[in-house]
Amino acid sequence: MNQQSGIYNIKRRACVTCTKAKCKCLPQTHNLCQRCARLGKQCVYLDLPERKRKRKDDDGRVGALEGKIEELTAQLVALRNGVNGHNGTASSSTNGTASTSINGAASSTEPSSVPDSVPEGSYGDAEPLDADEPEPEGYHGREPPTTSVLEGISDIVDRGFLSIHEAETYVAQFKSRFVWNFPFVVLPPSQTADMLRKQEPLLFLAVISATIPSAHAIRKLLADEIMQHITSRIVASSERNLGLLRALLVLCAWYRYPSQRGNVQLVLLLDLCVNMVHDLRLHRLKGELTTDQQRALLGTYWAATCLPRVIDRPTAMKRNKKIDECCQNMAMSTEYPSDRCIRPLILTQSFICTIDSSYKEFAELGADASSQEESFIKLMVGANLRHFESLKATLETELSKCPNSVTNLFHCNIHYINIAIRDLALDDEYISYQSRHGLANSRSTQSFKTSAFRCSLLWHLLRHTKALINAYIDIPDDELPQVTVFTIAQICASLVILPRSVSALLKLIVGNRSRASIPDDVLNEAKAVVDEADYLNLVVRLYDRLRLLIVGLSGQEKGLDVVGTLCCHMSVLASWYAPRVKAVLGVDLVSKTPLAAMTPPSIAINDIIAANANANAATLMQQAASQNVDGLVSVGEQQQVFSSYTGAEDGSYLFSDELWSTVLESFSSFG
């Protein structure tokens, strides 16, 4: 060291280059730091004069302050090191003070030690983003947690609400029966309920929620437990892992409680699934995914494209090469028998998305296509039908490997594809349809509305919607609880499309004739349409099937159940069907027998209205309840209610095109 005026000079702890960059300076040799050696820069240490020692009585106080500062600095560096994950500095002292190496740098044998102070101009251990240096890992914040914030908290089994024997029974049912309808989440045969609840607690709760009966005493408690996991782990703590994604998929597939107008919570769960796929980068991850990852990716795609079409929301996930690759892998998988059902599901839903995309492109052509609208529609429908015929051959081959329970549901999917191909024929009675397809109101459009081709499309719609509902009715009783919410959504859509098709066909048959001067041959043709639809008998049969899923629920509880709410809305929609037909024809062609003769269910409409808070339909449904508290009343009785509401003697004012559209719109979201 040099001596000047009795003051000894020592080297600065940081070199000039690191000081300017405000980076940590760790010496490598006597006159060269690690950073300068790595970057090939000149390393110069300036002299720093040491302060004169002052009076002895100040030494103790200064030393204490310096010790506190160094301790706090060491703790700060240790915290930052723990967040960023660098192998730089970390506190290793047990008494709260920082351990220091002999030469002021971290020892190679003690990577967790910290220097006794922070180099001048250097705070923390993260270097700034130099142009010639890569961005340090963790620079933008800490990584999401890898452990659950609810780990160790007792669950419904620990607290005695569900015995482990019951849990094992429900998990076994899920493995053997439920998985066939949604093969994207599979549990290993060796995994017991006790193992599942300890390893993946949210997935355990989701499986129990899917399999327990609707009237089970812990249903509300189970829903609260599930939401606690979702809000605490996924939302608040930003946990992201495959187990959570699989649990969310199960919750979506068998979502039943609570029912909400617009299905807000179900849509939120679907959005969480899509977001988690992106956060886990399953859709772009290079290399081979595990089979569970592939199933989760395909399940998210399938769920995210099924429901939005029914509730008129944009699709949140697109098909890509990764999905095609995983689909092909699952087709060849022999890990689980249910894997053979995955490819048919993906193919059918992907084809429906293709149909919607082609019609959307047609609508975007606007005036360019409207001049030849009927020709364009014929071309698109014909192309989609030809594509579907080739797809059916593939699906039939795939379905031959699946059990009968899966085949029944695939029949629903086949009919739904036929509906999707032709539903652009419904253009004047439904607001959501107009917003989805956006057909221009041109002379060509009016020509298409009255064309024989549109009449043919409407006839096919009538028959396929009826066939879809009958396919569900034919499902055996013991298989009904395994049906997913996506099939329920298809049934709900069919319940709306069928009366729309009947109404549109009747208006085509009547044309511009006055209701008072419709000839007998036209009425006979209209009666053939009404008889072919047989809508009220179909609704009654479907109602009897759906009632099996809500046995034991009170009126209030049915209003909080997706199927219970659907049953209530079905009864009201069926009551409005006959007045709608009479409003078009001027005569009553609908038999009153089905609604009058059936045994009404023990559902209090007023309780359901209070539970579901259905403001739009509350007035009409309360009036219906005044005639029959259980909702399904005869058409003759219902006419009196509607007349008092509308002020018209025959009730026809209520069933104008605008109000009929509102009726259908309020029913469209099956809840």
Question: Which key phrases capture this entry?
Answer:
671 residues, mainly alpha, two-stranded antiparallel sheet, 28 helices, disordered N terminus, Zn2Cys6_DnaBD, transcription cis-regulatory region binding, nucleus
Walk me through the structure.
Helix content is 58%, strand content 2%. The N terminus is likely disordered. 39% of the residues are buried. Among the domains are: 136 residues, no CATH class; 172 residues, no CATH class; 138 residues, no CATH class. With 671 residues, the chain is mainly alpha-helical. It contains 28 helices and 5 strands.
Question: Secondary structure elements and their pairing?
Answer:
Blueprint: E1 3-4, E2 7-11, H1 16-21, E3 27-29, E4 32-33, H2 34-39, E5 47-49, H3 56-84, H4 164-176, H5 193-199, H6 201-211, H7 219-236, H8 242-253, H9 264-280, H10 291-311, H11 321-331, H12 342-365, H13 367-370, H14 373-399, H15 404-422, H16 431-437, H17 443-449, H18 452-473, H19 485-510, H20 520-533, H21 535-547, H22 555-558, H23 562-585, H24 593-597, H25 605-612, H26 618-627, H27 635-646, H28 657-667
Antiparallel strand pairs: 1-2, 2-5, 3-4
Helix pairs in contact: 4-6, 5-6, 6-7, 6-8, 8-9, 8-10, 9-10, 10-11, 10-12, 10-19, 12-14, 12-15, 14-15, 15-18, 18-19, 18-21, 19-20, 19-23, 21-23, 23-28, 26-27
